């Protein structure tokens, strides 16, 4: 950025106000079930979640004349509204200049493997439409004077398909979509948490009939837990990712997602082994990814032990000051940890070094007022002594200031501003950070219309398991927009959400409520606090970036035991809000067992290191090296090529997690559309494959 940007412009991109929600529509009736007076809300479709993905689905449905409502645990909570990074991005299929085509983009999206090829193409081909429609709704994506979108390169992106409206891109997306939802008068139920999906029928005939929710605001003497019944034959799960699963997490607080909710309803999940981890500040303070310019400014990274002694730990890993500094820079666009990047003194050695410092009880900091200290015996840091790619980038950006803070100010003043908003002045003091969990690539298994295996249940956004092993930065938001639209198109074409449900499902709802009540027991020794502490510590310590067969197997045994205890003893609570959290933690404990089951299965079957995790093994073929010598402790298994072609499917049967594998769906790149031949399928709605739902 060479022109100084006035403060008020920076402010507007950082402090994004959300619209006011309209008054809530009341219930259509109340029924007495399991001794409780339950309000009943009726809809054609209930969207669970008001992040960017859920709002997109709701808006697209409403525009097509469907009877849709949104329920949300927290209207402007969740990842889209409350997190982001300075590289919050969207995919931009290019016009001129950097050249691109949808098929190439699809290949890039699925390049890490374990991703359905047709899904990757759907996301690629849908991306331009998503971008254009968001611009139409008012999303301020940056343009050049001739209307081209400004773009840049991000993680797993060789072309430069990313764009951004600054650190709050996803919040701005929520804002424009929410404004549209309000304009279209989509009913909104805020502070409403879905706790149970209600179904009817058996086997292939099983289908959704509604959802039980809990609302602290809906408490009455006759309904002390604020239970509400939403009758609807169609639901869209858009509840985001399971951010609370890990202790070390850069998700905003209170992100639970819907993996446990889905499992309990017999919905199949996929790719649960795949997540993203990387450096950032944790949710205890201000959760934010330290990618992009934060690291491209090349701050000094160091740790402090319990006695307050500082350690220049990266110097034990890299051989020269130039190598150290260049790899810190590369975290800018190689942000997620990737096992293979620990080899050849690559950039993931930075993550490994940081996580082992943290595991040793040291705190790690980034200091923007110091350049990296020299590796002992080597020359001091200099902008002239950097690897060619790094020197060229900083040269092009004109970031030739002496200190990292000034280089950061030059390249991205918003980066400093953003932390100031949360009372952290990175220009004045070092910033504490760690390696954190950031994204769930797996989730509910869906087809190319967002349909799950349960009739009437769709999933979009991070709730859906549409990503493979790696995902280019920005692909999550794009996928949420594309699949939000696709699910809406499909639901609308089916005609099932045109009118509110009139079903009488008292019997099913009553059984569901009885089940909820039996899971919540005031006298249980298992509390929200104890379950959270156990699940989060286990996931961060045993299923983080460094894993091995024994510790994952042991973690799975412990996770199973916790779920058996929860089934036997229930979860304690004393206030309604805690009862809601109790239900969410019960589901999170189940989700954690599901993730560990998939990981254990993957490792036992010989699966190697890919994406988020290094599978350490004394017999492993890959050995990361550090300047001090080989890191035998972190010797890891190489990725097995065959694993790229399939996905692990997880489902709950009774109390047991069941695992299976399926091949990735394919996409024939040579197939071409032919207008006269293919038009009838569009005109008659055959493209929606609706017979599969009959
Ligand atoms: C720090 C960070 C940086 C990121 N950077 C990028 C990036 O640069 N580019 C990118 O593409 N992606 C990025 N991601 C990922 C991306 O932001 C998320 O995948 C995406 O925002 C998810 O959107 P969503 O609509 O699916 O879910 P969310 O935005 O999380 O919304 C979920 C909604 O569901 C509601 N909800 C949850 N459970 C329930 C329930 N039981 N009942 C009712 N409501 C419920 C919540 O209140 C919320 O409204 C980043 C993530 C993080 C954490």
Describe, in plain words, how this protein is organized in 3D.
With 694 residues, this protein is α+β, with helices and mostly antiparallel strands. It folds into three domains: 7-274 and 441-508, 3-Layer(bba) Sandwich (FAD/NAD(P)-binding domain); 278-438, no CATH class; 521-642, Fumarate reductase/succinate dehydrogenase flavoprotein-like, C-terminal domain (Methane Monooxygenase Hydroxylase, Chain G, domain 1). The chain has a six-stranded antiparallel β-sheet with strand order 14-13-18-17-15-16. A five-stranded mixed β-sheet has the order 1-2-10-9-8. Strand 25 and strand 26 form a beta hairpin. The longest helix has 29 residues, at 576-604. The chain starts with 6 loop residues before the first helix and ends in an 11-residue tail after the last helix. Bound molecules: flavin-adenine dinucleotide. Flavin-adenine dinucleotide binds next to helix 2, helix 3, strand 8, strand 14 and strand 18.
Largest sheet: 6 strands, antiparallel
- β-sheet strand percentage: 15-25%
Task: Report the structural category.
Answer: alpha+beta
The neighbouring-strand order within the major sheet is 14-13-18-17-15-16
Question: First CA to last CA: what distance?
Answer: 56 Å
| CATH H-tier superfamily of the largest domain | FAD/NAD(P)-binding domain
What is the count of distinct domains? 3
Q: Write down the CATH class of the largest domain.
A: Alpha Beta
Q: Please name the CATH architecture of the largest domain.
A: 3-Layer(bba) Sandwich
Please tell me what the overall shape is.
globular
Query: Taking Cα atoms only, what radius of gyration do you get, to the nearest Å?
Result: 25 Å
